[in-house]
């Protein structure tokens, strides 16, 4: 994941923050989650955002992500919400002490969302996903819909891929599902056959707007995909208009 830093565009308040250039598809909530903060914290770093619209190419201040450790013979993994060294070691079938030794500067009790750690003894390229080969006639929408990806997820996993010119035979890394656990004020629901944004919101006494606000990384179409994890807020907030 690349965070462009250009001190000529914006001066961030202190050394614990850094500039970030807004990309297509970014929202205040998605940026806050990516950098281990919340909407209030992000607005405190960028008070003028209260009066402006977030636009592609705008540079804002975000919390600085810890420097990545050396990772020779392994692969980098980006910390997500709910991750722990113990859970990561189990996920990749590694001894916990081996993971700790590969990340001596990381505080296992204070991992930051967006922080990169080293997973030792994992091949480079597409270590945590699946490699697929583009077939003749494949369109960008075919890739994004077929693998349930956002454009940002595809670009992050394939920085050299030109999505404007799709060449048959090109190998792409399809990242694993970007799962984020639900907050304490919500419960998890898994989409079943016949579900939709409308039916799930109605059955839980919510409006579609409230359900989308509670799931800022999901698109309306995701509520049609069987197996999608959805957070159902126990204390609805936000716009009550459908």
Written overview of the protein:
The chain is globular, with a radius of gyration of 19 Å. Helix 7 crosses helix 8 (208-214). Strands 1-2 form a two-stranded antiparallel sheet. A two-stranded antiparallel ribbon has the order 3-4. It folds into four domains: 17-63, LysM domain (Membrane-bound Lytic Murein Transglycosylase D, Chain A, Roll); 74-120, LysM domain (Membrane-bound Lytic Murein Transglycosylase D, Chain A, Roll), CATH 3.10.350; 130-174, LysM domain (Membrane-bound Lytic Murein Transglycosylase D, Chain A); 186-233, LysM domain (Membrane-bound Lytic Murein Transglycosylase D, Chain A, Roll). The protein is α+β, with helices and mostly antiparallel strands and 242 residues long. The protein contains eight helices and eight strands. The two termini are 35 Å apart.
């Amino acid at each position: 994941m690349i965070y462009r830093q250009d001190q000529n565009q914006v001066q961030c308040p202190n050394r614990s923050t850094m500039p970030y250039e807004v990309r297509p598809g970014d929202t205040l909530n998605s940026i806050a989650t990516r950098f281990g903060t919340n909407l209030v914290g992000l607005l405190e770093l960028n008070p003028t955002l209260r009066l402006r619209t977030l636009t592609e190419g705008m540079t804002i201040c975000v919390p600085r992500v810890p420097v990545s450790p050396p990772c020779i013979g392994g692969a980098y993994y980006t910390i997500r919400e709910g991750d722990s060294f113990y859970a990561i070691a189990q996920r990749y079938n590694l001894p916990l002490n081996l993971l700790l030794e590969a990340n001596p500067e990381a505080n296992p009790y204070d991992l930051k969302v967006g922080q990169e750690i080293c997973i030792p003894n994992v091949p480079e390229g597409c270590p945590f996903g699946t490699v697929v080969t583009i077939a003749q006639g494949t369109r960008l929408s075919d890739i994004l819909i077929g693998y349930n990806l956002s454009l940002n997820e595809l670009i992050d996993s394939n920085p050299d891929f030109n999505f404007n010119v799709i060449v048959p035979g090109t190998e792409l890394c399809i990242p694993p599902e970007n799962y984020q656990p639900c907050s304490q004020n919500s419960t998890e629901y898994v989409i079943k056959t016949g579900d939709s944004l409308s039916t799930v919101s109605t059955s839980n006494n919510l409006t579609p707007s409230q359900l989308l606000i509670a799931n800022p990384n999901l698109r309306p179409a995701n509520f049609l995909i069987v197996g999608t994890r959805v957070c159902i807020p126990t204390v609805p907030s936000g716009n009550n208009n459908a």
